[in-house]
Specification:
148 residues, alpha+beta, OB fold (Dihydrolipoamide Acetyltransferase, E2P), membrane, NfeD family protein
Length: 148
């Protein structure tokens, strides 16, 4: 039975493409669709060249997968998806502009601030403990603050 299935590799690659496309719908993210496209391309190639060795098919699939992922990556970079909440998954960007309390005095530009229920390292102008400052940006995990 396996020989019968493997004798029509174009159908195998097409089924793989459909399964990957379905998985893309079920799993959050935008990645599997590009691999599905590569599998569909390979289905067309193996339909045109049915005697293509499996090793060559896998190499072509890998090359098309890399190519479609790179094309998709550049597409989303050049044409970003508009969102009603562009900072949805960027916690640091969501905190910019918030007023926070200095917990460890900022001396020589370094101290700590309370953000939510935790303390974070902070840089900014010297400020005593208890002072209120505003988050300007983040440098890694360090909040850059300014006086209010």
């Amino acid at each position: 039975m396996l020989d019968g299935i493997l004798s029509n590799m174009a159908l195998v690659w097409l089924i793989g493409a459909v399964l990957l496309a379905i998985a893309e719908l079920l799993v959050p993210g935008i990645f599997l669709i590009f691999v599905a496209i590569a599998a569909a391309v390979l289905a067309a190639v193996t339909f045109a060249f049915p005697d293509l060795p499996i090793a060559v098919q896998l190499a072509v699939f890998a090359a098309w997968s890399v190519m479609t992922v790179m094309i998709g990556q550049s597409w989303y970079r050049d044409y970003p998806v508009d969102s009603s909440d562009p900072h949805l998954n960027d916690r640091a960007a969501r905190l910019v502009g918030q007023h926070v309390t200095v917990t460890a005095p900022i001396v020589s530009g370094r101290g700590r601030v309370r953000i939510g229920d935790g303390e974070w390292p902070a840089t900014g102008p010297d400020s005593p403990a208890g002072a209120t400052v505003r988050i300007v940006k983040f440098d890694g995990v360090t909040a850059v603050v300014e006086k209010v």
